[in-house]
Amino acid sequence: MRLFNLSLRTKSIMALILSFVLALGPAVLIGSQVLEKARAHFGMAYAKNFTLLSAQKIESPVTRELALAKRFADSVVMEKWLEEGNPTVGDKLFFQEAEGFRRDFRDNNYFVINRKTLAYYLNSPDRPYSQKPRYYLNHDNPDDAWFFSTMENPEHFNINMNYDAHLDETNVWFNVIVKNQGKRIGLAGTGLNLGDFLQKFISTQEPGVTPMIVDSEGLIQAHPNRNLISFGSGSGTGKDRHFLRERLLDPGDVDKLEKAMQKVRKDPGSVEILWAGLSGREQLLAMSWIPELKWYVVSAVDMKAARVMDHAWITAAAGGMSLIFGILLFVFGYAVNRLVLRPLNRLTQSATALAGGDYDVSLPPAGKDEIGDLSRAFSAMVDQVKAYTRNLEKKVWERTNELENQSTLLKEARDEAEEASREKTEILDNVMESIHYARTIQQAILTGEAHLKHIIPESFILWTPKDVISGDMVWSRTYADGFALAVMDCTGHGVPGGVMTMAAVSSIDRATSDIGEKPPGAILCEISRIVQGMLSSQENSGFSEDGLDLGLCVYCRSQGTLYFAGSRISLIYGGEKGLAEIRGDRQSLGYCSSDPDFPFQSHAVSINEPTIFYLVTDGIIDQVGEETGLPLGRMRFMSFLNTIMDKNIVEQKQDIREMFEAHQGKEEQRDDVTAVGFRLYQ
């Protein structure tokens, strides 16, 4: 290759450049990843704060306008005036009071409709004051359908974005029912100009941000794009119904949107954030619920367009780093040439002369560094070359004879070593074949994931033995009213642990023959006594220090309850409120030191909602990480489960596996690892 024919100076410069490029590459990659995470973090905070500000900006004035409209409609003077036989003549007291409300309304207008006469009264700044009806509504006129629909709706009020063909106005109408002793006698309220409303509460100068208002059905009530507003939907008469969920690209995003709406509706004032495809782009959706108005305030943030971070300092930092890298490259190149390449070049010229047989050549002055050591070594070499030349032929002859004598001995030793190796290989093959066969038997006896899915469709088993045979096991059994499921961690691992699992399976089979009739705590006590009896040896030898830890779940379908008892194995479970843990009793089973009468506690978990359950052995919790040198720990594992508990079972298993492998790294696996997860429904 031409690269190897280059001079040392060129290679050195190229190596320096390559080193800086290799160092710069990961730095840029890591920096971009950190920047993206920071952008996502600040973007979520930005979306949340923007939504809260929008909700506050909308809630106070709109709620005030609605409250004034309700007071106007509840006026006793209003009720009396509408109940009179001929309200078209006008009533001084009513119109005086109405004018007082008009001054308080934001756009200084009000309207009143008499249900009996269908007369529509309105006074506003852009029309001459009048105490006579502006027009009369008609059942057969589609433009008046909003009124009749509102009067039939059981709700006391509605907020309706609508175009009034008689008035030629598009407003945000606050429609409030007027009642007299429970009888609906009319409709009153006020209107906000839609353009002013959108400009005041919806329009924004922030790039990449689209604020909107959505009603309880998911219909868009306000949007910077008027073509997306569901006009007339507040009164139930709108022809164009634009749902927010119809704007989403992925059906999965619709489910996330509906769940987020349910959460904020349960907790008004809070903000839910989700990623969703909207308008052809992946955007952040943040929403909050205003219960008084029955509105969702929604903000869509396009992370590629929104200014969530200031890029000026990023550009400056990148330029500064590039300048520093350039200066360092120049300094290092000059230093290498001055201190290394020049002395080496002079030494190379001297070495070339020596290779040609000129032993009188002068070498460069020897310094105190490695190149000086090399010069001194060359001088010593010149003195020794002649002596080596004289002794070389003699040593070659002697060595040749010695090798010929040793050749026969080496051949015999090699044959013996090969024979021993073959015998050792045969023995190891037989042992490993037996161990693998034992593992096959063990897997056939224990519960596998496919079998567990027949019992609990939404379930998984993560089973990773430290050796070929595992000391951990999963056991299950069905009965008439449900099922039993256990996770055991037997003494040791490998062959001893595998043998212990066989004893454990036999013990739990015997102890659960009448499953469903006694609590799981009593079953653990019985298992402990059975294992102690099985492990007892001859008369005076006492007990072997072998035993197991066990977590047992018994599900009663008729009661909708899962019962649990644990021997040093805990049950982790949770629903919408997060995860909780039932710690196993600090008492192992089957050891000679185990108390055969220990009162194991039985716990009950009612299945009132979709609930996820986890059983894990200490092989996960106690695994030491490569980076930290510390065990994973129960709290870190619980925190991780909190982040994945809402995912489907298949994703949860994969996430747990990847998290464990990332934590372990190249660290040796300390123990058998078993994790079981399953979800039950009410």
Structure description:
The protein is α+β, with helices and mostly antiparallel strands and 682 residues long. It folds into 2 domains: 52-301, Beta-Lactamase; 446-680, Phosphatase 2c, domain 1. Helices cover 46% and strands 21% of the residues. Strands 3-2-1-6-5-4 form a 6-stranded antiparallel β-sheet, with helices on both faces. Strands 8-7-11-10-9 form a 5-stranded antiparallel β-sheet, with helices on both faces.
Labels describing this entry:
2 domains, single chain, Phosphatase 2c, domain 1, Beta-Lactamase, five-stranded antiparallel β-sheet, alpha+beta, 682 residues, 14 helices, flat, six-stranded antiparallel β-sheet
Task: Give a short summary of the structure.
The protein contains 14 helices and 21 strands. The chain has helices at residues 8-73, 76-83, 92-104, 145-152, 194-202, 251-266, 312-355, 370-445, 449-455, 494-511, 520-535, 618-621, 634-644, 649-664; strands spanning 110-114, 119-123, 135-136, 157-164, 169-180, 183-193, 209-215, 220-222, 272-278, 281-290, 295-301, 459-464, 472-479, 482-490, 548-556, 561-567, 571-575, 578-582, 603-606, 611-616, 673-680.
Secondary structure layout:
Elements: H1 8-73, H2 76-83, H3 92-104, E1 110-114, E2 119-123, E3 135-136, H4 145-152, E4 157-164, E5 169-180, E6 183-193, H5 194-202, E7 209-215, E8 220-222, H6 251-266, E9 272-278, E10 281-290, E11 295-301, H7 312-355, H8 370-445, H9 449-455, E12 459-464, E13 472-479, E14 482-490, H10 494-511, H11 520-535, E15 548-556, E16 561-567, E17 571-575, E18 578-582, E19 603-606, E20 611-616, H12 618-621, H13 634-644, H14 649-664, E21 673-680
Antiparallel strand pairs: 1-2, 1-6, 2-3, 4-5, 5-6, 7-8, 7-11, 9-10, 10-11, 12-21, 13-14, 14-15, 15-16, 16-19, 17-18, 17-20, 20-21
Helix pairs in contact: 1-7, 7-8, 8-10, 10-11
